[in-house]
Design the sequence.
């Protein structure tokens, strides 16, 4: 099947075929995907399918450049989200709440995202998506009227993909790169964790390494991915956590712009002008932190603690793992050293 283009627009022709002729993980309902669209869709679908299955709630993810900008379970819509997205928290359905919470982790990065949701798309979510800038969606189904509403986005070029929840991938992954064929077993095991640490582990598995994820109350607050230095990843994601929390400051003015993205930008601009920001940041607590690789130095624990982290999950096994454990104990952070790395490249 033809793709719109390969990884870059000049890489044509490009195509995709199922590994097994009679079994594909998805089908194209509307639009023509590109190479990166497929990577976003496949990674996003696996993330939300795993998260929903493991935690028994609808899940959503906002993918950009093959990593989640945000991901979340269905849950409460707080005043900052209600104000930015003009939603009534009492009347917002679970699937819409999951996507709003996912997009709200880093709404600047989610501009032009690829959406993944664990449950069939209803008209409420379809109506919400008409108001946001995104490139496409993957879901396990669509209620009547939804496909037509979504396909009309982007002058009829919005990509709609349907995932097959019953699909089982081959047990071995194969990648061909520069004349080499590389094989490995599919990575399907998750660490023995619960709650936010488990959700963070699922998100980290589908983010490009190095990756770290800050999670609170079933939603990512900051995802850092693709950094060569883990402390850089921890600091970048932590800055996103700070921005998320500052948007909840009591003095945050209500946005007034007509377009949704402009309202979010109003909030982001107002963050720099808030009074007593350090005192407000110090009030954030109860944040979980997941690292896809072992924490090599204490600076990651120290930085994570600055952003309200009270629990950490990381593989352990580094030469300084005992020091990491001692630093967590000193700062009142619970630590799970899982013995399982979650690299993705």
Sequence:
């Amino acid at each position: 099947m033809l793709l719109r283009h390969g990884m870059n627009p000049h890489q044509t022709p490009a195509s995709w075929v199922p590994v097994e002729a009679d079994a594909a993980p998805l089908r194209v309902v509307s639009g023509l995907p590109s190479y990166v669209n497929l990577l976003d869709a496949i990674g996003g679908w696996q993330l939300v399918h795993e998260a929903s299955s493991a935690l028994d709630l609808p899940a959503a993810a906002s993918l950009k450049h093959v990593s989640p900008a945000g991901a979340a379970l269905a849950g409460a819509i707080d005043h900052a989200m209600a104000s930015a997205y003009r939603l009534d928290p009492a009347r917002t359905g679970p699937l819409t709440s999951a996507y709003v919470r996912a997009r709200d982790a880093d709404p600047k990065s989610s501009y032009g995202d690829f959406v993944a949701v664990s449950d069939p798309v209803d008209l409420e979510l379809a109506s919400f998506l008409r108001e946001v800038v995104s490139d496409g969606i993957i879901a396990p189904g669509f209620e009547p009227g939804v496909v037509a509403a979504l396909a009309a986005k982007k002058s009829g070029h919005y990509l709609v993909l349907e995932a097959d929840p019953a699909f089982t991938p081959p047990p071995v992954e194969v990648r061909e790169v520069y004349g080499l064929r590389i094989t490995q077993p599919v990575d399907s095991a998750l660490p023995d964790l619960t709650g936010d640490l488990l959700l963070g582990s699922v998100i980290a598995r589908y983010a490009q390494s190095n990756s770290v994820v800050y999670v609170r109350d079933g939603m990512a607050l900051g995802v850092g991915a693709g950094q060569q230095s883990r402390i850089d990843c921890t600091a970048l994601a932590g800055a996103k956590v700070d921005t998320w929390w500052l948007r909840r400051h009591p003095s945050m003015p209500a946005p007034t712009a007509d377009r949704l993205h402009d309202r979010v930008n109003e909030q982001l601009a107002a963050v720099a002008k808030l009074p007593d920001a350090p005192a407000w940041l110090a009030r954030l607590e109860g944040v979980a932190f997941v690292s896809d690789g072992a924490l090599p130095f204490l600076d990651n624990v120290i930085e994570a603690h600055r952003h309200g982290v009270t629990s950490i999950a990381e593989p352990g096994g580094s030469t300084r793992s005992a020091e990491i454990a001692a630093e967590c104990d000193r700062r009142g952070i619970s630590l799970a050293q899982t013995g399982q790395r979650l690299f993705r490249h």
Observations:
- The first helix runs from residue 35 to 55.
- The first strand starts at residue 26 and ends at 30.
